[in-house]
Amino acid sequence: MLTCKQFLQELNDYLDEGLDPKMRADLQRHVEECPNCWVVCDTTQKTLKVYKGMEAHSIPPEIHSRLMAALEKRMKQGPCGRKVEF
Amino acid sequence: MATSSSAAPIFDESALVVRAKAGDVTAFSDLVSHYDRRIFRMAKQITQNDDDAEDVLQETFLKAYTHLDDFQGNSKFYTWLVRIAVNEALMKLRKRRSDRTVPLDEPIDTGEDEVVREIAVWDQNPEDTYSQEELARILDEAVQSLKPAYRTVFILRDIEEMSIEETAEALGLSISAVKSRLLRARLQLRDKLTRQFKRKGDDAFAYL
């Protein structure tokens, strides 16, 4: 049986499904038998879910306009890669 | 739905990049319009400041345009953009808080200090309990409380949904460094959000 510490160390790969089947089965067994790790795993999953559900709102129109104006000015200077100003 | 023959145009990143490299400014503008909101959000999350985020946004696309010929297509164009944007954002951060900021490449304490303090189930789906604005504020505040080195990894991997490899490439970090920072970031956020979202004690139900 894995310890809670070992479980936590593998939590990322467990959540991202990047593990070999043997390790996955060991972690699965631990999480089924350890209420604390079950809660940590469940709430971490929920944490990731709420962040993934966040949409990038459109940027304010004036910021988009200023961006496009700055680019237009730059584009008038000629094809990309010609000026070295990095 | 026989009349809906005009589907939304498919965004083909690599085709647009090829055209942009050939000098098609419209193609480059299309790339900008497709990615500007994500670059702006990311810049804002890293710099925590609207003005800096706008500077980062402009610098990112100006540099991308100027150096488009250097983009070899070995990674996704978006990963390349993110790499530029992250560098710009971190420069802003360092300039502003040079006394306190943890540089991205500084070794991170990976000691065993407790990152799991709150062990409690959540009340219900926060999406159902809070308005979008409230939820966005809670989530933003939690991310902003992370150290920049953790925050940046979390933003790329879990908000921008880049792979571990892409995140490592964009930040110039090793895979193992990304993984350890990501674990720390995820657990710290879980901890903070649990304090907010945990199921309330019986008292809370007395009012129902």
Question: Explain this structure to me?
Answer:
The complex is a heterodimer of chains A (86) and B (208). By secondary structure, chain A is an all-alpha fold. In chain A, 67% of the residues lie in helices and 0% in strands. The radius of gyration of chain A is 24 Å and the shape is elongated. With 208 residues, chain B is mainly alpha-helical. In chain B, helix 1 packs across helix 2, helix 7 packs across helix 8 and helix 7 packs across helix 9. The interface between A and B is large, with 42 and 52 residues.
List keywords for this structure.
heterodimer; A: 86 residues; mainly alpha; 5 helices; elongated; B: 208 residues; Rna Polymerase Sigma Factor, Chain: A; Arc Repressor Mutant, subunit A; 2 domains; 10 helices; 64% helix; disordered N terminus; disordered C terminus
Topology:
The complex is a heterodimer of chains A (86) and B (208).
Chain A: H1 4-9, H2 11-15, H3 21-33, H4 35-52, H5 61-76
Helix pairs in contact in A: 3-4
Chain B: H1 13-21, H2 25-47, H3 50-66, H4 77-96, H5 126-129, H6 132-144, H7 148-159, H8 164-171, H9 175-197, H10 202-206
Helix pairs in contact in B: 1-2, 2-3, 2-4, 3-4, 4-8, 6-9, 7-8, 7-9, 8-9
